[in-house]
Fold:
Amino acid sequence: MPVVRLLPPDVVSRIAAGEVIDRPASVLKELIENSLDAGAARIAVETLGAGRELLRIADDGRGMEPADCRSAFERHATSKIADFSDLDSLCTFGFRGEALFAVAAVSKVTLTSRAAGSRKGWRVELRGGRLVSEREAPPSEGTVIEVRDLFFNTPARAKFLKSDASERSHLARVVEEAALANPGVSFSLKSEGRGVLRFDSHAAGGAAEALRLRACEVLGPELGRGMLAAEAKTDGVELLALLSAADSLQATRSLQYVLVNRRPVANRTVQQALYRAYEPFRAKNRHPAAVLCLTVPPDQVDVNVHPTKREVRFRKEQALYELIARAASRTLLTAKGIPTLLPQAGRGSLPPARQPEFPAPRLHEAAHAYAPAFHTASGGARPAAPERPREEAGWFPQSLRYLGQIERSYLAFENDGGLLVVDQHAAQERVLFEKYLGQILSGEVPVQDLLLPIPVELPASAVHSLLGLRKRLKKIGFSVEPFGKSLQVLSVPAVFQKSADVKDVVHGLLEGLLSPAAAAADARYDATATIACKASVKAHDSLSPAEAVELLASLRRCADPSCCPHGRPTMLNLDRAELARRFKRSGAPPL
Ligand code: ADP
Ligand code: MG
Structure:
């Protein structure tokens, strides 16, 4: 007796529906996407019984011809793609032709539509996926879909629904996400006969302005207004974001919205990048509110990896991570007023003749440029340094003076009558990072052979991945080889030779390279991952005055001296005016 048989079509369709439609909110998401795809400028939603009894979506989009009203409910019926290659240039939300089929399979649906330009309206009615009637209807604008008695024929699924309150909150979230992603479209949500949400269209102004107005509606005016805007762009990828300021983090994670090509998604890489930027400021259990809108060329993102398209995959994951982490980090630091060492206009500024080359001259400045003004707080002798012609150091702060070390962690300088505090560990990380990155990019990383190879204990899976990365490791100065069941390290980059503990470096490196964000090989990433381990001066190292000055000088030569590779600030400045203000003086004392 054969035991394998084909399932009847109505069973197949209910099983298939389960992948796309698992609760009222997923119906709503699909139907809103269809309205947006139809070019709607206005979308009105009404629900009864938390969406179980009725979900009604009315739009003013381009509508459908009678024949399409019928065929839209067939499986894999779509107007959006014709063949597989169209997926690479996809600009619509839908493409599988599955949503209406799936919704209809598990509910009682009525669709009324009028195609733009037509004088006739059409209405079709389905029950459990079967057409029960179709006829002409009064011509109204766009399309109205009513979904009743959701899961009436799949009672098992109905049992998985949560409380009304929970399902309602999911419904509202769907509208909020769609609204944030489409500030030009107006949305309304009525629940159990009561108006719950109403977002007017924000078409005027730029995208950033429209997003802020919409965020004020969705997140509330206070939160929305206080958020910082960040914009960035690389390789065709664009980021537009609104972010909590570093000092107004929330007790909930739920105020984060990630929109990729206007599609609300959950993505680990994006979330990790966001949290990386907040790392220096974030206490446990506090979270940023954020609206991250990414525009990615369609061929660089795969939305076809999850039935509900809630997950996406990026082709250049690492570049995206960098883009978000850097833009967010920069925005947060700038808002906090973290200074760089760049002189203010006026005193100590670059002589006019050299200004056009700026900032190139910074790259050639040497430690001893600080020396003429150098002495210790106690007035002790300054280290020997060759006298430099005055004008070479012309655009440096003239009176940068080392005052001393605090807690063997911070270096204090007087800076043009103000106080400059440097985090020595963050500064050292930045300096090492740029040096090392430069070496990696030039393809010449000086290495240091270890006197004794260092064995590293790791689980077999990690050993395999790392041995697979051997070439890449070599390029960044590490050589590893199998050692028993584990592996050992034979050489490390010379930049780490002063490092207290090579094993730490190696462990940090392994952890970095095996993290999900490391999937894409990228010099910047490799350098960051490697530096992530505490290879540099540890906080609590004591530095001699000469070393402190040397460190600051090296920091100055960095392309991005204001923060460490992980985005922690390297320095804080209280300038003359700020000091005077804090002491409530009428003005800064003359220098
Ligand atoms: P997909 O969106 O993947 O194409 P759907 O099952 O969601 O599949 O929809 C099938 C088709 O029905 C769409 O391709 C579109 O042509 C049409 N359609 C659905 N909803 C609407 C709407 N609100 N306005 C106009 N056309 C619609
Ligand atoms: Mg669709």
Residues 106 and 151 are 5 Å apart (CA to CA).
